[in-house]
């Protein structure tokens, strides 16, 4: 009925009969009904069957399956209001296992968002835009002379989309998002190895331009790669790397930390 059956033939034709593939997603507790009875119902109605069935496992809280009867549900709307949709979406795609149950806590959601989105991606984008603003007045260098020390970063930047696509073909969101984080982590290692603030001080302009060009290219790639998973953050990353006005915008954090620092 959701695609319009039986009255909306155009909608049903687009979303069901005309779809490249039909993926039936269900929880493991109802697999008998949806992998046996539901196809039988479709056959009896002369309708197209799903091409694949994806069975997911459970989210748990303190090791117990979330259920209405147990009263241990965690409201996603409240979590999104408290931490933002990006943090909630990121935990669901980054930490939930392809096989096996996954235990949820708010502390894990916050830790994952801070580690990946604030410390790894956010720190990279902020330091990159700050460096370009401080040393090149916001104008991204062309980097016409390639930095040989950036070869691992360039190689990873060229292959990450393929890795993500392969993981999503296997319905493995955790492996897909891990590949995106790995690219950001490699770029942060590159920053520490090249130390562009020292290149600026010692007058290595050619080297500095090459380093900054590599970093901006990586941040732009991250903006695209993050889009399907955390569209809000992806848009902010892309906006920070936009030279539409001739130079990068004023540096702004793209993802502030959720947890208060300790110590």
Task: Please provide a written account of the structure.
There is one protein chain. The chain has 263 residues and is mainly alpha-helical. The protein is built from 10 helices and 5 strands, in the order H-E-H-E-E-E-H-H-E-H-H-H-H-H-H. Helix 3 (76-83) packs across helix 4 and helix 4 (85-94) crosses helix 5 (106-136). The longest helix has 31 residues, at 106-136. The relative contact order is 0.12. The model has no long low-confidence stretch (mean pLDDT 93).
Q: How is the topology of this model organized?
A:
Blueprint: H1 9-17, E1 23-27, H2 31-44, E2 52-56, E3 59-61, E4 64-65, H3 76-83, H4 85-94, E5 102-103, H5 106-136, H6 151-169, H7 173-194, H8 196-202, H9 205-226, H10 231-240
Helix pairs in contact: 3-4, 4-5, 5-7, 5-9, 6-7, 6-9, 7-9, 9-10
Provide key terms for this protein.
263 residues, mainly alpha, three-stranded mixed β-sheet, two-stranded parallel ribbon, 10 helices, 5 strands, 6% strand
Order of strands across the main sheet? 4-3-5
Strand content: 5-15%
Number of separate strands:
5
Rounded to an integer in angstroms, the radius of gyration calculated over CA atoms is 23 Å
Shape: elongated
The topology string of helices and strands comes to: HEHEEEHHEHHHHHH
Ends apart, CA distance between termini: 56 Å
Question: pLDDT under 50 segments (min length 5)?
Answer: none
Mean pLDDT, all residues: 93
The helix count comes to: 10
Query: Biggest β-sheet: count, sense, barrel?
Result: 3 strands, mixed
Percentage of helical residues? Answer: 55-70%
The class by helix and strand makeup works out as mainly alpha
């Amino acid at each position: 009925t959701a695609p319009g059956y039986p009255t909306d033939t155009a909608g049903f034709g687009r979303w069901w009969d005309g779809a490249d593939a039909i993926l039936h997603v269900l929880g493991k507790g109802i697999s008998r009904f949806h992998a046996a009875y539901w196809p039988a119902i479709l056959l009896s109605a002369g309708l197209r069957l799903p091409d694949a069935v994806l069975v997911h496992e459970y989210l748990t809280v303190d090791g117990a399956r979330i259920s209405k009867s147990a009263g241990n549900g965690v409201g996603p709307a409240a979590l999104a209001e408290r931490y933002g949709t990006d943090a909630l979406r990121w935990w669901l795609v980054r930490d939930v296992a392809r096989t096996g149950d996954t235990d949820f806590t708010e502390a894990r959601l916050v830790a994952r968002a801070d580690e990946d989105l604030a410390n790894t991606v956010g720190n990279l984008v902020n330091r990159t835009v700050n460096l370009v603003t401080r040393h090149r007045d916001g104008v991204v260098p062309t980097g016409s002379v390639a930095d040989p020390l950036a070869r691992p970063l360039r190689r990873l930047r060229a292959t990450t989309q393929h890795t993500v696509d392969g993981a999503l073909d296997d319905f493995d969101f955790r492996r897909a998002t891990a590949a995106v984080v790995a690219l950001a982590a490699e770029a942060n290692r590159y920053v520490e190895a090249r130390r562009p603030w020292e290149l600026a001080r010692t007058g290595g302009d050619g080297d500095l331009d090459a380093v900054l060009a590599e970093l901006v290219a990586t941040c732009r790639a991250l903006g695209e790669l993050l889009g399907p998973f955390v569209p809000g953050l992806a848009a902010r990353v892309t906006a920070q790397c936009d030279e539409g006005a001739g130079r990068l915008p004023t540096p702004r954090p793209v993802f502030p930390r959720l947890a208060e620092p300790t110590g």
